[in-house]
Amino acid sequence: MSLSLVRKRRNSGGGVNDSQTAPTKRRLTQNTSTQSQGANTSIIQDKRCGKILLMHLTNFMCHSNLTVEFHSRVNFLVGSNGSGKSAILAALVLGLGGSAKTTNRSRSAKAFIKNGETSAKIEIVLANDGAQPYEPDIYGDKIIIVRTISLSSGSYVIKSESGQVVSKKVDDLHRILMYHNVQVDNPVFVLNQDSAREFLKELEPSKNYQLFLKATQIDVVHEKLTDSLHLHKDHMEELKNYEIRLKKEKEDIAEHENKLKELLSFEKLKDVLKRLEIELAWQQVKQCENQLQEISDKFAKYDEKERELKNLIQNKDEVYQILSQEIRKDEEGMTLKNSNFDKVNREYRELKNKDDEINRLTSEFKNSLDILKKKKSRLEHQIEEIKKYIDEKSQGNQDDVETLRAQNQNEILKLRQQCDSHVVPMIENIKRELKLHIDSKAQKEQVVNEIKRRQRECLDEIRLRSGQIANVKASAKNKILIYGNHMPELLTDIRKAHSQGLFSKLPRGPIGSYVDVANSQYRDVIENSIGRGLLEAFIVNNTKDRQILEKMFTKYENCRPIIITAAFSDKVYDVSGGCVNPPKGTHLLLHEIRCSDATVMNCLIDRLGIESILLTNSKEIAETITSYIENVPKNLSRVLVLKEGNICMEYYPKPKYRMYSSKVRPANYIQVNIEERIRHLENEKQSLELKNKSYETDLSQMSNQIPQVTKLIQEQRELLIKQENTRREIMEKIAELDNIEYADYSNEIQLLEKEMGDYETHLAQIEQKISETRGQLSDVENEKIQVGAELQSKENELQEIKNDIEAFKSTVDRKKMKLRSVNNNDSSYRVKLSEVQDVINKLKADHKEMSRKVDACTKAAAEKGERIESDLSGDQLQDEISKVKAKIKHGKPVSLDPQSMRQLIMTKKEALLANEGKYENIKHSIYSLRKSLRFRFDFLKKLKEHMALLLQLSFSMILRLRNFEGSLDVNHQQKTLKLSVIPRDHNKNAVSDTKSLSGGERSYSTVAFLISLWSCVDHPFCFLDEYDVFTDEVNREYMTRLLIDEGRKRPLRQYSFLTPQDMALMSEDFIKILRLGEPERG
């Protein structure tokens, strides 16, 4: 439809909707020209729940009493700036449950009360006569919402069409709005002027994307799904708690079942007691029977022994004669075996000698054969050499010999010059370089060893510092730990030994634990002067105590303190006669030491002479009182001077004046400041660690140099060997040339041929000897095999004879021993027989008594019941009987009877079964929720993409109505929505950023974007404030036409547009223009 929009003077007449009884400074008029006669025909078609039918404002902002009736399709609210258009929009937001902050006008609702008034009221009528009305039987075709705002509070009232109050709860209002999908806080559907201006001005991609999410309610859906995900996690925790509860219920049921078993067993305790008593009675019978059987077994054993003894005594002579005959027979057999052994042994010796002779001959023949083979080889070689020599010499002559002699002499001269001028100097030079490299390597290895030694010392110091730090830290709670971890236990052992009387007097130690120094500036120098060894030492009263303490020290590893033996005293020595009177500026060491134990103080006096040592901080004073004999105080032994940097200078007085200096270590034992000592030790440890790192660096550098030097040494040695081989080859060649004989060859060949003939004759003789020797060797080896077999046979025979002789010896010895036993034990047999007969008589009496006892026990047990075999012993049965009697005496384990207990267990099991069913249902529901959440998250992702695609298509189509080119770029990862627009009559390559557009083009693009968003969702109404604020007439016309066309296409949605621009429209039955009066100007 084509609309012509023109500027038109505002109609001064018309019906006034303001109440006559409550005049206002605003006037709302209705343009009746926009209403056609056919308005009623469209009412049925555009009915929808949730549309705004009427708003009534009382004392709200600039309105005292304003009533606005809205058309169900399209409404234009026209009025100048300040006429109260935005107040209507703010009232809509507040009246439908929105917050004051959402209006962008105030943070408090009471700020909207008209000046001079104490309260304001907003009344909004919603349509409820469309499809799917909200509780129509209660509310009817309309829902009236009234919000009252006072200076101190506010309230809501929800009424039906008839004006009856239905609810005053905000939650009911929210349910109505949610049911009709009303979102007053969604700027897509309710866009106030501040949001519109900011939106038109910025069009930021991130804000556009948030608007897209809010318009499509995807943000709400995502929030709800996220809440559901958290709810799922909470339910999972509840499910775990449910599992624990079920487990406890099962344990409770098991406990009650155990109680039921105990209760049932209690009912049977009397039967159990009776059975146990029967078992005990028969167990006693069994014990008596076992004892009777033992007596019977012993009787049989001693009876057998009695018969043996009687036989021995009766058959003594017969046994003696039999044993003597057997001994003689065995000795004769042994004599025969011995003679046979001698015979076989002689034969074995003869064979052994023969075998040795054969081995000797074999060795001789083999040696002879080797010698002959070597002679043969040597003769063959000599014959071959002679043949070659004859062949060579027969081809030459004497002139060739002289020429060769001259050539060889020249060659020798050249070789000598080469050796002296090149090879020998090079060898000397290589030897010098090799020596330098070897010395360098040795020096570097020495340096490496020294670095390693220092590094080991450094690491030992680091470990020592670590141990000292640990001891100092531990000594914060127990000072004695500064002397070692073993010291508390050692002192405990010493005190325990003293309480047992092992020590004559309790040993004192460590000495340092008894010593304090009040003046902190002298603490370090005094500890260094006393010495670590003495501070760790122990004092004992006598030598015996010393031996006991030394033995105790062996229990502890690395515990070897000094032990000082000195008589204990209760008084400190009187040293007034040998004490030094300290001059001004000095202090006596005796006075600086605080010691509560007289024995320890006397030890320090004896060992160090502390009464004769002075302390001072002045070097001049020390030199004055020690370097001049007239200034030396009486009894002075030395003066200790503490200088800065922990340096101690020690002066000895005249006549043996001398001075020494040493570094003072911080005090470790005497009255130590724990924190300061730990800090000092850690600094020392860090310094040592840095030193160790420098050692590692130096060691690495030096170690890397050694392989290089080693490689050079190897190269020089190889070169030296090569040059020495060259020199040796030259000298060998010279020697070879010098040793050449230049003979006269006239008769030499004949002599050589004769010599070769002699060699060949000798060779034939040697070959004959070799053949003969091989034959002899073969015969000897065959004979050796035969003799070896015979020798082995004789060895086996000798071993058999030896075994027989040993068997005869053993048998004879045994029988002789038995024979002596027969002679010597006749009287003992008689004594044993008497003893055995006494035992038999006693066993007979015991057997008779035990048989009577068995009969009595059996009779008593039979009276109690039939025989029962038990695996328990008598004591165990007695214990069980005692337990059962105790249970019977104690009474029932629970107050319930078995039937009640069964009923209670059944009830608990039923409850458990029901809870398990609930658990399974909850578990299934939770898993279904998880599955549903996964499905809905996937669906939400697809919905985003679908809505974005729909938005892009709608936006492009609306832009093309004005021949604009444009697109929407939606990035779900970066959460941005960027608008790209190219106005008509522009190059396609023109800049498409919305910031480069004019105000009208930007407004049109914005409206196009909003309409695209409207097309993606469904909402009962849309309010748009000052949509044309930055536009020109042409774009405003197109935008208005576009909005009216949107209202025409969507009759089920209500549109309301607020604008300060007056307008006249062609008569349309779905459009209503509402004009606000001019504001009163002060």
From TrEMBL:
Chain ranges of the RecF/RecN/SMC N-terminal domain: 57-1044
GO biological process, one term: double-strand break repair via homologous recombination
GO CC list: nucleus; site of double-strand break; Smc5-Smc6 complex
Localization per record: Chromosome; Nucleus
Single GO term (MF): damaged DNA binding
Coiled coil (UniProt feature): 232-392, 671-860
Region described as Disordered: spans on this chain: 1-41
Basic residues: compositionally biased ranges: 1-11
Pfam families on file: SMC_N
Keyword terms: ATP-binding, Chromosome, Coiled coil, DNA damage, DNA recombination, DNA repair, Nucleotide-binding, Nucleus
Record field: compositional bias (Polar residues): 17-41
Family: Belongs to the SMC family. SMC6 subfamily.
Record's protein name: RecF/RecN/SMC N-terminal domain-containing protein
UniProt organism field: Musca domestica (House fly)
